[in-house]
Amino acid sequence: MLHLEGIDVYYGEIHALRAVALEVLEGEIVALLGNNGAGKSTTLKTVSGLLRPRRGAITLEGRSLAGVPPHAIVAQGIAHVPEGRRIFNRLSVRENLSMGAYLRSDGGIAGDLDRVFDLFPRLKERIGQVAGTLSGGEQQMLAIGRALMANPRLLLLDEPSMGLAPVLVEQIFATIDSINRQGTTILLVEQNAAMALSIAHRGYVLETGAVVLAGSAAELAGNAEVRRAYLGE
Questions:
Q1: How many C-beta atoms surround the C-beta of residue 71 within 10 A?
Q2: How far apart (Å, rounded) are the C-alpha atoms in residues 28 and 19?
């Protein structure tokens, strides 16, 4: 579905991604692991068109994303839930969800709204509430729900558990697994490596902007280096 080959990305003179190559197959959850500053968020921003690679190729189902603006990438089936949620604080829950469907004119919007409420019943309870007054967990639910309103085939999730209490982390990951089982492919960036690998099919490890390990989730979870660096063992 998604293929990155030889991606180099710079912030000015800083070489942030170095010949990154990875793929996400249809129906998978692929985890992208690494320490802060490893290039995980940069990878997602590059896929969604917020950053432009200096070298390399990105294709979605065989079509190049080179030079495609972010809104057109959304229209092609990729939705990005950024680190820090980035909801519209002054808009209501309903208005935030409607913004997720701003490119759509099909008849499936109402059904997708019902899907979001099935996944996150709390949002239905808070539908008229100003988004900035929601709890951190509720805001994360809203950020994911807003992305789902674009009806993506590929969902990019950046640190969905950041700042959440452990019980909410488990709830969010159970929901991510459910979203995948419903047919949405997911590329997941997550500091909580144990949780990420518990639901992922495969994964990649980034260090200083380069892929240093790749394999199935079980292989990575059993790798001594991964266990020591990311699983606290």
A1: 10
A2: 23
CA dihedral 127, 125, 146, 183 (to 10 degrees): -140
Q: Which pTM value belongs to this model?
A: 0.91
The average confidence (pLDDT) of the chain is 91
Distances (CA, A) of 100 to 18, 61, 149, 201, 215: 32, 23, 5, 27, 33
2-230 sits in which CATH class? alpha beta
- Centre a 10 Å sphere on the Cβ of residue 58 and count the other Cβ atoms it contains: 20
C-alpha pair distances (Å), 93 with each of 158, 175, 213: 21, 19, 40
Helix extents (H) in 85-223: 93-100, 109-119, 121-125, 136-148, 166-181, 193-199, 217-222
**Domain range annotation of the chain:** 2-230
Three-state secondary structure call for residue 204: strand
pLDDT in tens, 129-151: 999 899 888 998 999 999 999 99
Contact 190, 35 (CB under 8 A): no
CA quadruple 49, 50, 53, 56: dihedral sign: negative
